[in-house]
């Protein structure tokens, strides 16, 4: 199990303990519900999880944070546990005879029938094989009932979404904009929102960091199934901060009706102002939007707030808000994560660009984290070095340190000559 897989397992574990951590459920009933169904566990596949195990994960998280949820590294790391091509073909043929059998039961039958040895072939190996060939037998799940809801405390839940905005001049061309926003479910206040010239995750990173700094920490972030709201970066950030990340059912925009209603308000009350006097740049668009947000939307009586404004409701509960003790931690929490193997010349490739890393990492798989500011190397969750963009022109005149692999080969060759 590599570092990325360990982190994905930890994210799954956090997802199970998050409702307990944030007081969303009756613990006994919730653990009973968890025990009663199969879970798709990263790396391990379909499995049941004991309530006692969930409680242990909860304690580990309380004591050690997100790091406490990481699986321990294998003692037999490096030993191959792969199936041969013939074994794979045989297992796939057997599976085609019972395609809808739960993978956990299928795995147990393979062992019982002597097809595989449990000590040599793990459940996750079989599950990965079947998943690769679309033979896990998963069927469509019944759609759960959606109920109308409203929270009575601020920062219990933030709804998140993206809306298409107006066209504005960007670098000499008219480009479409996208409004990314959060809305507090209780007060209808907007923790933060901003227009961007793309709908990539970089925009959501900015909006989420600003919202957390300005308005405190929510218990739950509720987004749709869009790519940016499913990103691992957002999942890791929420897990590190103790926030539950929940998602709507696909193609069901009404399940986050409050943020949809806010976007409609923007369209009917703010966009007409732009038609009368168009924004000349993205910066101007955002400046005018933020001014409208504070002076109009936040200070206007909301129909669902019993004659109060979003600002009044939020301000009335300031004593219940949890603010970040050290906002600077957001800089590392929201870094994008990648795994790379360092080449013999001490470089890695990211986004079609070549980066140079310290020579001690040559030949190793490293944990790389990056944002628009830079590329960093992490070990055991801590930044230990920075990768620099390679300048071919400068490197042509630089004295390079020999690769340790080259030195080892030279030493072996010299040793051989001495014995001749």
Description:
The structure is a single chain. The protein is of the alpha+beta class and 420 residues long. It has 4 domains: 3-69, no CATH class; 85-132, Arc Repressor Mutant, subunit A (Orthogonal Bundle); 157-329, Nucleotidyltransferase, domain 5 (2-Layer Sandwich), CATH 3.30.420; 335-404, OB fold (Dihydrolipoamide Acetyltransferase, E2P) (Beta Barrel), CATH 2.40.50. It contains 14 helices and 13 strands. The strands form 3 sheets. Strands 8-11-12-13-10-9 form a 6-stranded antiparallel beta sheet, with no helix packed on it. It has a 5-stranded mixed beta sheet with strand order 5-4-3-6-7, sandwiched between helices. β12 (375-379) and β13 form a beta hairpin. α1 packs across α3 and α1 (3-21) crosses α8. The model is unreliable at 76-80, 140-148 and 403-407 (pLDDT under 50). This is DDE-type integrase/transposase/recombinase. It comes from Metabacillus lacus. InterPro entries: Homeodomain-like_sf, Integrase_cat-core, IstA-like_C, RNaseH-like_sf, RNaseH_sf.
How would you summarize this macromolecular structure in one to three sentences?
The protein contains 14 helices and 13 strands.
Strand % is 15-25%
Query: Mind telling me which CATH architecture of the largest domain this is?
Result: 2-Layer Sandwich
Q: Give the low-pLDDT segments.
A: 76-80, 140-148, 403-407
- Report the count of strand segments: 13
CATH class value of the largest domain:
Alpha Beta
Taken from the alpha-carbon principal axes, the silhouette is: globular
Overall tally of domains: 4
Strand line-up in the sheet with most strands: 8-11-12-13-10-9
Largest sheet: 6 strands, antiparallel
How much is the radius of gyration in Å?
26 Å
- Separation of the first and last Cα atoms: 44 Å
Task: State the helix count.
Answer: 14
What's the CATH H-level homologous superfamily of the largest domain?
Ribonuclease H-like superfamily/Ribonuclease H
Mean pLDDT figure: 84
Which topology of the largest domain does CATH recognise? Nucleotidyltransferase, domain 5
What is the N-to-C succession of helices and strands? Answer: HHEEHHHHEEEHEHEHHHHEEEEEEHH
Helix content: 25-40%
**Class by helix and strand content?**
alpha+beta
């Amino acid at each position: 199990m590599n570092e990325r897989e360990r982190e994905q397992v930890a994210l799954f574990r956090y997802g199970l303990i998050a409702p307990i951590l944030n007081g969303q459920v009756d613990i006994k009933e919730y653990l009973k519900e968890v025990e009663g169904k199969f879970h798709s566990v990263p790396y391990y596949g379909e499995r049941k999880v004991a309530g006692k195990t969930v409680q242990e994960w909860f304690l580990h998280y309380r004591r050690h944070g997100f790091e406490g949820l990481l699986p321990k590294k294998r003692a037999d790391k490096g030993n191959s546990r792969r199936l041969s091509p013939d074994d794979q073909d045989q297992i796939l043929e057997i599976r085609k005879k019972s395609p809808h059998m739960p993978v956990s039961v299928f795995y147990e039958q393979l062992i019982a029938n002597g097809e595989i040895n449990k000590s040599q072939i793990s459940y996750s190996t079989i599950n990965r094989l079947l998943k690769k060939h679309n033979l896990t037998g998963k069927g469509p799940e019944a759609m759960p009932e959606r109920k109308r809801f409203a929270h009575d405390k601020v920062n219990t839940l933030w709804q998140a979404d993206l809306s298409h905005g107006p066209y504005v001049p960007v670098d000499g061309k008219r480009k479409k904009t996208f409004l990314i926003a959060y809305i507090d479910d209780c007060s209808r206040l907007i923790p933060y929102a901003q227009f961007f010239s793309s709908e990539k995750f970089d925009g959501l990173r900015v909006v989420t960091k600003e919202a957390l700094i300005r308005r405190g920490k929510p218990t739950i972030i509720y987004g749709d199934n869009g790519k940016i709201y499913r990103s691992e970066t957002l999942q890791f950030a929420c897990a590190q901060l103790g926030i539950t990340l929940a998602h709507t059912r696909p193609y069901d925009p009404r399940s986050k009706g409050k943020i949809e209603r806010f976007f409609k308000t923007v369209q009917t009350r703010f966009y007409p102002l732009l038609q009368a006097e168009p924004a000349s740049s993205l910066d101007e668009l955002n400046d005018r939007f933020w001014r409208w947000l504070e002076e109009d939307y936040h200070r206007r009586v909301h129909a669902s707030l019993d004659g109060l404004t979003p600002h009044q409701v939020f301000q009335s509960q300031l004593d219940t808000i949890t603010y970040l003790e050290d906002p600077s931690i957001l800089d590392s929490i929201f870094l994008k994560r990648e795994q790379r193997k360092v080449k013999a010349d001490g470089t890695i490739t990211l986004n079609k660009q070549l980066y140079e890393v310290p020579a001690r990492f040559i030949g190793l798989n490293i944990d790389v984290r990056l944002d628009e500011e830079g590329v960093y190397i992490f070990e055991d969750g801590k930044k230990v070095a920075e990768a620099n963009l390679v300048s071919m022109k400068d490197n042509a005149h630089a004295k390079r340190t020999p690769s340790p692999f080259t030195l080892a080969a030279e030493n072996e060759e010299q040793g051989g000559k001495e014995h001749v």
